[in-house]
Design goal:
The chain is an alpha/beta fold and about 270 residues long. The protein has a single domain, classed as Rossmann fold (3-Layer(aba) Sandwich). It has eleven helices and five strands; from the N terminus they run E-H-E-H-H-E-H-E-H-H-E-H-H-H-H-H. It has a five-stranded parallel sheet with strand order 2-3-1-4-5, with helices on both faces. Helix 5 packs across helix 6 and helix 6 runs parallel beside helix 11. The radius of gyration is 19 Å and the shape is globular.
């Protein structure tokens, strides 16, 4: 079998990770897994294929049967979210090997976002991991959280607090930094760069992701279950944030970039 390759999408919440996952996973040689770390820990909700739940999805049922036939625990007992490195590697290799045998896909896409999971994946010498960090303007992330009733100042602080360790970790590893806004405005160009880094050629059909069958675990439900392949840049913040809020966010962003520059000599420039 060819080596196991994984594109790992990491980001803050509300930054477009599910959209990026679906677009990459619509390549003929790729399989999107969604937020796979939640598969056994949180298997509620409609599957992207339309099944009423992941437990009733025929795809995942077959994966579980194949795991058992290979001598592994069934999917519900597979510790793919283990924190101990050896157990983590064993469970995730078993899952990816079965998926590769079932689908013949060369590259898998994991949009779990969690840095703790990415760190463990990067420690596996038998797994080729390409981290892709997607970032969205803080105004958009803050606005999305306000819509859920969350305090905007607290969410602005969380936005930068969660970005810092991602930049700190990824500066030590080859990776791609992707702008949510650029992805929405120029999806073909951005996807082309990502696929090239993964050793694949961009396929125009990737942009029509709803024509493909997906079995994403968790992630943004509206994107996962959409039946229209519409890429729409969400900039509601331009209308909904006050001038005071936008000014406070710009100042916080300037301070954060200065900290990055002074600490790491880093000025992030996404695709």
């Amino acid at each position: 079998m060819p080596p196991l390759k994984l594109i790992y999408i990491t980001s803050n919440s509300h930054s477009g990770s599910t959209l990026l996952d679906m677009l990459i996973g619509s390549h003929s040689a790729c399989l999107t897994l969604g937020e796979i770390h939640k598969l056994t820990a949180k298997s509620e909700g409609e599957c992207a294929c339309g099944a009423s739940s992941f437990a009733t999805c025929l795809f995942w049922q077959d994966v579980s049967s194949r795991l058992e036939a290979s001598g592994s625990p069934p999917l519900a007992e597979l510790q793919i979210h283990a924190t101990e490195p050896a157990a983590f590697r064993d469970a995730n290799r078993r899952l990816l090997t079965v998926l590769q045998q079932k689908t013949g896909c060369a590259v898998f896409v994991d949009s779990s976002k969690k840095l703790s999971r990415l760190k463990l994946l990067l420690q596996d010498p038998d797994l080729q991991v390409l981290p892709v960090h997607i970032v969205r303007r803080p105004e958009g992330v803050v606005c999305s959280n306000i819509a859920k009733g969350r305090p905007w100042r607290e969410e602005l602080e969380i936005y930068h607090r969660n970005l810092w360790p991602r930049y700190d970790l990824l500066r030590h590893h080859p990776h791609l930094l992707v702008s949510y806004e650029s992805l929405c405005r120029q999806p073909e160009q951005v996807l082309g760069r990502i696929m090239e880094a993964a050793g694949l050629a961009f396929e125009p059909d990737q942009l029509d992701w709803t024509r493909h069958e997906h079995h994403n675990v968790n992630g943004n439900k509206r994107t996962r279950t959409s039946r229209a392949s519409t890429i729409r840049l969400d900039e509601r913040w331009r209308r909904q944030l006050s001038r005071r809020q936008r000014l406070a966010i710009r100042l916080a962003q300037a301070r954060f970039r200065l900290r990055l520059l002074l600490r790491f000599g880093l000025w992030p420039r996404p695709l």
